[in-house]
Amino acid sequence: MAIDSYTALENGGEREAGKLMALERILKCLENVTLMNKDNQSYLVIFDGSLLISKLLKSVF
Questions:
Q1: Which of 36, 43, 50, 55 has minimal CB crowding within 10 Å?
Q2: Within its chain, how far is the Cα of 50 from the centroid?
Q3: Residue ranges of the WAPL domain (predicted)?
Q4: Which residues, 6+ apart, have CB-to-CB distance to 52 below 8 Å?
Q5: Residue 30: which residues within 8 A CB-CB, separation 6 or more?
Q6: Average pLDDT, integer, range 10-26
Q7: Can you tell me the distance from the alpha carbon of 54 to that of 6, in angstroms, rounded to the nearest whole number?
Q8: pLDDT tens readout for residues 29-43
Q9: What is the pTM of this model?
Q10: What whole-number distance in Å separates Cα of residue 29 and Cα of residue 31?
Q11: CA dist 24 to 10, 27, 46, 50, 55, Å?
Q12: Is 52 buried (19+), middle (13-18) or exposed (0-12) by CB count in 10 A?
């Protein structure tokens, strides 16, 4: 029984790590698109009522 619980915990951690790695790639892409480009920065901040900002905050907290 303890082995099954440990395996489930370990697999859950791997899944979360995969999600974080995907998020990191997405944020890196956004950084590349917006770096030194005020128009793109403004667009991402105001798009759909600041949806990007609220989703990022929810994912962090």
A1: 36
A2: 16
A3: 1-61
A4: 44, 45
A5: 44
A6: 81
A7: 34
A8: 989 989 999 999 999
A9: 0.57
A10: 5
A11: 21, 5, 22, 20, 14
A12: middle
